[in-house]
Design goal:
Order of helices and strands: HHHHHHHHH
Structural class: mainly alpha
Largest sheet: none
Shape: globular
Strand content: under 5%
Number of helices: 9
Oligomer: single chain
Number of strands: 0
Distance between the termini: 39 Å
Length: 128
Amino acid sequence: MEKSELTRLLPKNSSDVDGARAVLALGYPTVAPVLKTLFQWLETSGSDVELLMRSFFASLGEPAIELVAEALSSPSKPARKAALLQHVLPSWPREVLAHIEPQLKALIQGYDYYGLDAWALKLLIDKD
């Protein structure tokens, strides 16, 4: 499927559950061309669409490693990091999490409003 076709299927807003379900039903690797756009929904603070994306990325695992590593290393987007640490990454197997262990350890060194340090530490402890 062409990227332009996939783009037309993307959710139009944070309540567009039907749009989100339609594109996610195509599965991976079909949605690979719009994976980064789907990933951006993980910063919408628990919107209906974000809840679907959390489940999708929790089950996706390794194909999202680069996106997750980049997001966890970013100096911004704490809401996305919180969604990843609390709702996505706990579902990933230890061998996949090993790829992002440096980013998780770096988060432990900081402190912020979202408690990312505590969530990263919990994830590392739970998966050890």
